[in-house]
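Re: that backbone. Tokens:
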């Protein structure tokens, strides 16, 4: 470009930068500071009352309007404090009915043992009806889709009860209960809380729950408000003077 061309460019007026149509409107100004800076989103309140009271558990497990399969499942979950997925994955071959225990696969595929009490020991034989193979907990009808052989009862063709269906039935049954509907996990949570209230030591609670760390166990071992009230009543000086 020659000297004359450079002079012509220098003599042309500089165009102003284009502005956004919104900012060009009167009364609208670009904020210099983000008005939401410094504001914190409110955190979700932690619910520490997931454990059910003992009388709630007994009333639930003693109901006569619940089928044998559900009564056995709920009782087994509460007595063993096992996760619902672990119990629903049980096969008949995993059970040791004589010694009231079974092998389960915990998180991380660790094989562990759960142990139950007399009530479950009485229900399981009635549920199995002599079956020696296949899933412990079955659906009420034959499977309509193709499933892995391990998820079917070889004699009846019924499928393994799914977690989704088991949870749905439990919530339906507890919808009218105080604080309902409850979740299957609350049976486990309640069992561990009640064991801690009864004085179970840390080693026992770890074996009972299947946890490998005390930090994971801590939220279950927190005593219930009812147990805290009983403890306060026992140590109340005014009560001792009566």
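Recovered sequence:
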């Amino acid at each position: 470009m020659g000297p004359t061309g450079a002079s012509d460019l220098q003599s042309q007026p500089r165009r102003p930068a284009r502005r956004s149509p919104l900012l060009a409107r009167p009364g609208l100004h670009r904020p210099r500071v983000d008005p939401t800076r410094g504001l914190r989103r409110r955190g979700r309140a932690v619910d520490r009352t997931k454990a059910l009271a003992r009388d709630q558990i007994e009333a639930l497990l003693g109901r006569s309007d619940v089928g044998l399969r559900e009564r056995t499942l709920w009782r087994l979950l509460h007595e063993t404090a096992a996760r619902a997925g672990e119990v629903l994955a049980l096969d008949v071959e995993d059970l040791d009915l004589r010694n009231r225990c079974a092998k389960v696969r915990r998180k991380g595929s660790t094989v562990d043992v759960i142990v139950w009490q007399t009530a479950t020991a009485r229900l399981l034989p009635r549920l199995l009806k002599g079956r020696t193979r296949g899933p412990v907990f079955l659906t009420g009808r034959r499977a309509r889709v193709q499933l892995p052989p391990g998820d079917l009862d070889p004699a009846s063709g019924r499928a393994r009860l799914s977690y989704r269906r088991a949870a749905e039935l439990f919530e339906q049954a507890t919808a009218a209960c105080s604080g309902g509907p409850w979740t299957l996990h609350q049976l486990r949570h309640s069992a561990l809380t009640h064991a801690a209230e009864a004085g179970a030591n840390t080693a026992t609670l770890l074996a009972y729950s299947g946890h490998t760390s005390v930090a994971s166990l801590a939220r279950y071992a927190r005593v219930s408000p009812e147990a805290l009230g009983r403890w306060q009543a026992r140590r109340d000086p005014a009560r001792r003077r009566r």
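The CA atoms of residues 62 and 224 lie 22 Å apart. Residues 54-223 form a domain with the hpI Integrase; Chain A fold (CATH 1.10.443.10).
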